[in-house]
Amino acid sequence: MTLMRNKTLAIFGIVSYLLSVYASQTDTEGTSTAPVYIVILSGIVAFVFTVLATIRLWKFSRQISILFGGTSLIFFGMEILQVTLSPSDGTTLILIINITKVVSLLLYFYVIFLLFKIDKYQALSEQSNTEEIKNQ
After folding, report:
1. How many angstroms separate the CA atoms of 127 and 109, rounded?
2. Does residue 118 contact residue 20 with C-beta atoms inside 8 Å?
3. Distances (CA, A) of 127 to 30, 41, 50, 124
4. What is the pTM assigned to this prediction?
């Protein structure tokens, strides 16, 4: 028995993304203006979504699951580097961080898309397997 359906998990991922956008608000000087509890909540929700989506996709597509989990870990590591090193604009590290952010964002939305469509693909797969068994 699953605690959360695939579409519910996809909606949870959308809420997680919106919460992370809200938690990243800054003023004109770049200082965070979001309350600390929102930032912490956003991190927890994003972590929970990443773990649940990775586990759920493992049965459907292991490659996407590994890619999503690995990209999330790399993105987290790059964010820590950016905060601790505070590199200046235009450096190679900033370019790598920005590329990682774009890839992570695209993969995040692809995972949400897959979670919305996974039930349809599984139903078609089960139907074709049933037809193959009947034909034998």
Report:
1. 28
2. no
3. 54, 41, 30, 5
4. 0.78
